[in-house]
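Progress against Task 2.4 (sequence-to-structure conversion) is shown through the following example record, which the project officer requested during the mid-term review.
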Amino acid sequence: MAVKTKGRRRAAGGGKNPIVRALRNDLRHSCMVLLYDERYSTSRDLSSALEEKRGKVSYHMKVLVEAGLIELVITRRVRGTVEHFYRPAYSWDAFEAMSIGIAI
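Structure tokens generated for the chain above:
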């Protein structure tokens, strides 16, 4: 069931819940799965693994941080840039439960 809002359609139940909105994106979901495999990672590592542009992955990582699904662990300077290391904020079981709830 879809709800029409201001000329655009959105799925019912998505609303303004940032967790639901974040996990509905395939790239963000893939980033989350890889983070659980690696324990922690950078946007650069994830972009290489997913074969996506680094800027695109960085943007989606920021969305995941804002949703509270991942957290910034450490930052360090490397060759004039700053690397951001992220890790999941929830256990795998909690993440799976959230993903299943969204898929329904």
